[in-house]
């Protein structure tokens, strides 16, 4: 009897670790292909760009150590500074406008019939290639395009948009193409707010703006803050939309419209005579990445509120 | 306040009209003269070859991403392993890294593997850059599935791999389709990596063909008919997909933010 029990317990003791080991093995088999691929083709290159940014390199000959020289040079480079300013303008001013517009649209669409359809229409640019949007947008603002025709109709001067105000056109275009995404996110968030809050507020005499400020904003705050993070990340990724304003596959758009993404491309593979300044461009890549991190952390901090349960 | 609302409404209407114009401008061209434009775009502007390249590349890459990401999503979304949480974060961080940050090391890496100007190389890159978002999406999806079936399978003695394959994978079908669709859309529209890694005309994708056509136009004068035929070749498949799977697409793309 004693022997039997002992045998029994040993079987049990042996089984525990086997199951854990099996689970762990299954976990590895399932997760490993993705981890390996992601590490080699994504994480590796991310870390490598830090290393490359400390060198002078054309990708072919030997790397030469430069320390932080690339970075000091970048901050004296008018082209880079303009690109960085543009990136920040898109991120900050563009972001502000996108969110203001999104909320405005949200208010406007609240009582509307067919808002599902309206939502699909507003969201539509998100599934279209940015270069197509860029072509269409440029078309609207061309010398004899719709915008000028409309301005002419009201008797105003028709400016040379694409020649004199190209960055403004790009900036407005980015707001146009992106707003739909945020309207959709915010709509999902505000739809979760129970109607009776608004009814109660109305009884107390609160107008739409007060309702917005005291009900909609606080109750959708966590979604707004996540959306702000998404905007930060995606605004730094913008490339195609600006690039296509150069008009061709081997020319770059005018320098004053560059953002840091176009700058990186322009310093390496882009243009008729590619520069292949890998080290220099990597330094600006590092600055881009650091900006992402700084802005996301900052946003997280600024926008942190205690979540409201409802 | 009424005025504000009206202004907002008006703005929205203008936007929607704008978009309608886009949606419908190209189809309205058909009856008149546009069939010739399509033929022209297809042949002389190389959209035909590019469409075939895009189709094969996007279809295989989007399938491959899901094949690689689904097991990982399952492992990360439904494991008690301590590694799962940190690996989930490891993948999520990749979503914040812009492609232009990694393109230089990637180029050197691909050159050493002699995979530059090579559609298989581009396929590999497309799979890799789509991984962070797809794993993130599917991890969330698998985590949201009910656990009872999985427990029942475990009690019946099914191994974890078997449970994944025969029970959880079919259960997650809807999430997998969403992941496939979103990646197909993103990759179909992708221009940056294609621009860097493809050099010859016979290997270019549709966005490149469009950019190339814009270049040609600068010398030979603008032919908006053909240009918009080219644009339509790029847009119409996405439009069809949107009409067909619109809600799924919208919900999938906005998933990260809305809780």
From TrEMBL, chain A:
Topological relation to the membrane, as annotated: Multi-pass membrane protein
Cellular component terms per the entry's GO annotation: plasma membrane
Transmembrane regions listed in the UniProt entry: 27-54, 88-109, 121-141, 166-189, 223-245, 278-299
GO process annotations (BP): transmembrane transport
Domain ABC transmembrane type-1: from-to ranges: 84-299
Major localisation: membrane
Gene3D superfamilies reported for this sequence: MetI-like
Keywords tagged on the record: Cell membrane, Membrane, Transmembrane, Transmembrane helix, Transport
Compartment(s) where it occurs, according to its Swiss-Prot or TrEMBL record: Cell membrane
InterPro entries (alphabetical): ABC_transporter_permease, MetI-like, MetI-like_sf
Presence of the UniProt keyword Transport in the record: yes
One Pfam family it belongs to: BPD_transp_1
Family per similarity comment: Belongs to the binding-protein-dependent transport system permease family.
Name of the protein this chain belongs to: Carbohydrate ABC transporter membrane protein 1 (CUT1 family)
Origin species: Nonomuraea fuscirosea
Taxonomic lineage of the native organism: Bacteria, Bacillati, Actinomycetota, Actinomycetes, Streptosporangiales
From TrEMBL, chain B:
Domain ABC transmembrane type-1: 51-245
Bilayer topology: Multi-pass membrane protein
Spans through the membrane: 49-75, 87-108, 120-143, 164-188, 224-245
InterPro entries cross-referenced by the UniProt entry: BP-dep_ABC_trans_perm (IPR050901), MetI-like (IPR000515), MetI-like_sf (IPR035906)
GO annotation, cellular component aspect: plasma membrane
Classification via CDD domains: TM_PBP2 (cd06261)
Keywords: Cell membrane, Membrane, Transmembrane, Transmembrane helix, Transport
GO biological process, any: transmembrane transport
PANTHER family for this protein: DIACETYLCHITOBIOSE UPTAKE SYSTEM PERMEASE PROTEIN NGCG (PTHR32243:SF24), MALTOSE TRANSPORT SYSTEM PERMEASE-RELATED (PTHR32243)
Similarity comment: family membership: Belongs to the binding-protein-dependent transport system permease family.
Listed name of the protein: Carbohydrate ABC transporter membrane protein 2 (CUT1 family)
């Amino acid at each position: 009897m004693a022997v039997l029990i002992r045998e029994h317990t040993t079987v049990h003791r042996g089984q525990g670790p086997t199951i854990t080991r099996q689970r762990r093995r299954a976990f590895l088999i399932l997760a490993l292909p993705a981890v390996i691929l992601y590490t080699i083709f994504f994480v590796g290159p991310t870390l490598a760009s830090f290393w490359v940014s400390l060198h002078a390199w054309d990708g072919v000959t030997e790397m030469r150590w430069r320390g932080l020289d690339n970075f000091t040079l970048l901050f004296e480079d008018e082209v880079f500074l303009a690109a960085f300013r543009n990136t920040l303008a898109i991120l900050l001013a563009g972001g502000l406008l996108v969110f203001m517009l999104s909320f405005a649209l949200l208010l406007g669409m609240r009582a509307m019939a067919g808002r599902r359809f309206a939502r699909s229409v507003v969201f539509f640019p998100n599934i279209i290639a940015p270069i197509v949007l860029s072509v269409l947008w440029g078309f609207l603002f061309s010398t004899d395009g719709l915008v000028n025709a409309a301005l002419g109709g009201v008797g105003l001067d028709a400016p040379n948009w694409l020649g004199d105000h190209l960055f403004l056109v790009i900036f407005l275009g980015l707001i146009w193409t992106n707003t739909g995404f945020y309207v959709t996110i915010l709509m999902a968030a505000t739809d979760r707010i129970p109607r009776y809050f608004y009814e109660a507020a109305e009884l107390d005499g609160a107008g739409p703006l007060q309702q917005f400020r005291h009900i909609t904003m606080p109750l959708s705050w966590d979604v707004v803050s996540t959306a702000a993070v998404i905007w930060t990340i995606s605004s730094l990724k913008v490339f195609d939309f600006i690039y296509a304003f150069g008009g061709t596959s081997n020319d770059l758009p005018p320098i004053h419209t560059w953002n840091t993404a176009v700058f990186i491309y322009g310093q390496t593979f882009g243009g008729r005579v590619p520069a292949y300044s890998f080290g220099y461009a990597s330094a600006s890549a590092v600055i881009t990445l650091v900006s992402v991190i700084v802005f996301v952390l900052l946003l997280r901090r600024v926008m942190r509120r205690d979540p409201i349960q409802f | 306040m009424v005025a504000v609302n009206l202004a907002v409404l008006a703005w929205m209407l203008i936007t929607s009209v704008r978009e309608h114009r886009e949606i419908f401008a190209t189809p309205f061209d058909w009856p008149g003269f546009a069939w010739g434009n399509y033929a022209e775009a297809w042949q002389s502007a190389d959209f035909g070859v590019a469409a075939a390249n895009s189709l094969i590349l996007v279809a295989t890459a989007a399938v491959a991403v899901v094949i690689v990401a689904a097991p990982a999503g399952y492992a990360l979304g439904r494991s008690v392993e301590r590694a799962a949480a940190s690996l989930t974060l490891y993948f999520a961080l990749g979503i914040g890294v812009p492609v232009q940050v990694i393109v230089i090391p990637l180029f050197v890496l691909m050159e050493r593997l002699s995979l530059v100007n090579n559609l298989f190389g581009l396929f590999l890159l497309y799979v890799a850059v789509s991984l962070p978002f797809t794993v993130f999406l599917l991890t969330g999806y698998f985590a949201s599935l009910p656990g009872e079936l999985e427990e029942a399978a475990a009690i019946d003695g099914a191994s974890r791999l078997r449970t994944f394959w025969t029970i959880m994978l079919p259960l997650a079908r809807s999430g997998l389709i969403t992941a496939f669709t979103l990646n197909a859309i993103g990759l179909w529209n992708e221009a940056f990596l294609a621009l860097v890694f493809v050099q010859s005309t016979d290997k270019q994708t549709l966005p490149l063909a469009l950019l190339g056509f814009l270049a040609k136009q600068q010398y030979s004068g603008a032919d908006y008919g053909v240009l918009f035929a080219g644009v339509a070749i790029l847009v119409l498949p996405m439009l069809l997909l949107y009409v067909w799977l619109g809600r799924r697409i919208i919900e999938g793309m906005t998933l990260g933010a809305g809780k």
